[in-house]
Each structure stands twice: as structure tokens, then as C-alpha cells.
Design a protein that fits this description.
The protein is built from nine helices and eleven strands. The chain is an alpha/beta fold. The model has no long low-confidence stretch (mean pLDDT about 95).
Length: about 250
């Protein structure tokens, strides 16, 4: 089962979520051979709640995923923390809605939630906690104390960072993750559908629940695949995204 664990359903935080735009993402993901992805939209994006209201209205939700034209979409979000950095949370639909409601007072940049407070709040929930793009220059997590980072479940090998920093970054991330005794998982960080397939996780088992997904990761029963066309995919997606954002003023 091929799954991407870091994706976005729209071009930017200011853009509106549309069903047509989401379907374009799904069709592209299916075309390049993905079985599913985690929809980890920014927690402070415009009308976050509308995203899941729209999915609820148009697609069936079973186990812990939406069945979107045969592709499994697991609910999630990407959360900014006060110390600088992003945390990906992937979990059950209701859990994501409740966590999002709790985070409403923390949406503004000057009010981002502290790392330890976020981890403490989500602890009772059965969510997968991934440190997003740990080595990103402006939004990385590697500056945090390693003891604190060990509260996470995994670290994100991010296609956008591979594009900017090169494949050597993967080895640096693996070494860092080994020090924390955490697995590394792949996420494309897709905002435009052209970026799908740049990196993904090839699971050796089918998963339909968060527990199954977590178990596969903890048992290292997967391989990370990096497309030989990663640079072309990310560059094309970035160029189209930039052009569309200008034309749409988002």
C-alpha cells in the first residue's frame, strides 16, 4: 500500500477549499499509483472546519479514513508550535475536529501553542504525531531538546526539503532520527497535485485504521520511495502554485 503522510488540499492558507480542487488531487494521486494519503491541512488555514464538512457531505467514512473514489484519505492537520516548527497529527475524524476546536485560540502567530502543551493535550487521543520537515531552515524542529522530541512517533522526510537540500539530507535525517529512536516517514508536502509521487511510503500491509498505520510504522514494515523525478515534480508544482496564487490573489 502506497501512502503519502504529508499533503495539503489547497494552494495556501488563504485559499478556499473546493471539492473540484480536492478531486484533482485525488485523481492525480491515483494516477501515479498511491493507495491513500493523509490530509494534513494547516490547523489555522481559512475555514478549516469546512474541509471536513465537505468530505462528510460527499464521501463515506469507514474505519479511520474517507473512501474517495477508491483512495483512502486519512484525516489530519499540521500545527505550528510556539518554539517554531510544525507537528503533523493524523487520526480519527472526530479526534481531528475536537483537536481543531481546542486549537482555535492558538491560531495567530503570536499565540501558537507550546510544543509540550500540544503533546500533552493530544496524549489521550489515538493520533500519529510526526515532526514535520525537522531540518527546514525557517520552520524546522531540530533545535528542540531531543528529550522533548522523543514524545513524537516519527519524523518527516519532506519532498520540498529534499528539493532544496538534496538527497544527502535524508541520511542526516536518518542519523538524527536514530539518535531519537524514531522512525522516518515520507511526506510530499503537496499543495499542488503535481507534487504527488515525489516521495511516499510503500507499506508492506494494507491499513485502514490509525492503529494499523501506527503499527506498520513502529515495526518498520515499509519502505520509503523517492521518485527519480523528485526535482522536476516539486519544481513544476512550485511554479504552477506560484502562478495560481498570483492570479487568484491567495
Amino acid at each position: 500500500m502506497k501512502i503519502d503522510l504529508h499533503t495539503h488540499g489547497k494552494l495556501s492558507k488563504k485559499a478556499e477549499f473546493t471539492l473540484d480542487g480536492f478531486r484533482e488531487h485525488v485523481l492525480q494521486a491515483k494516477e501515479i499509483g498511491l493507495s491513500g494519503f493523509a490530509l494534513t491541512e494547516h490547523f489555522n488555514t481559512t475555514n478549516f472546519e469546512f474541509i471536513y464538512d465537505t468530505l462528510d457531505a460527499h464521501y463515506s467514512y469507514m474505519n479511520d479514513y474517507y473512501d474517495v473514489e477508491g483512495l483512502r484519505v486519512f484525516p489530519g492537520m499540521e500545527v505550528d508550535i510556539q518554539e517554531v516548527g510544525h507537528i503533523l497529527l493524523i487520526g480519527k475524524r472526530q479526534d481531528m475536529k475536537e483537536i481543531n476546536e481546542f486549537l482555535v485560540p492558538y491560531r495567530a502567530k503570536e499565540s501558537f501553542i507550546p510544543f509540550d502543551s500540544l503533546l500533552a493535550f493530544v496524549r489521550p487521543y489515538h493520533v500519529l504525531k510526526i515532526g514535520a520537515h525537522p531540518f527546514r531552515e525557517s520552520k524546522g524542529l531540530a533545535h528542540l531538546d531531543k528529550g522533548r522530541l522523543k514524545q513524537l512517533d516519527a519524523l518527516d522526510l519532506n519532498a520540498t526539503d529534499l528539493y532544496h537540500q538534496g538527497l544527502k539530507m535524508r541520511m542526516e535525517l536518518v542519523i538524527f532520527a536514530n539518535e531519537l529512536q524514531l522512525p522516518v516517514v515520507a511526506g510530499s508536502d503537496t499543495h499542488h497535485s503535481l507534487q504527488f509521487g515525489s516521495v511516499y511510503n510503500d507499506l508492506r500491509e494494507e491499513v485502514s485504521t490509525i492503529q494499523e498505520l501506527k503499527d506498520v510504522i513502529m515495526r518498520n514494515a515499509y519502505d520509503i520511495e523517492i521518485s527519480p523525478c523528485l526535482k522536476e515534480k516539486v519544481k513544476a508544482a512550485r511554479l504552477v502554485k506560484k502562478t495560481l496564487k498570483k492570479s487568484l490573489s491567495v
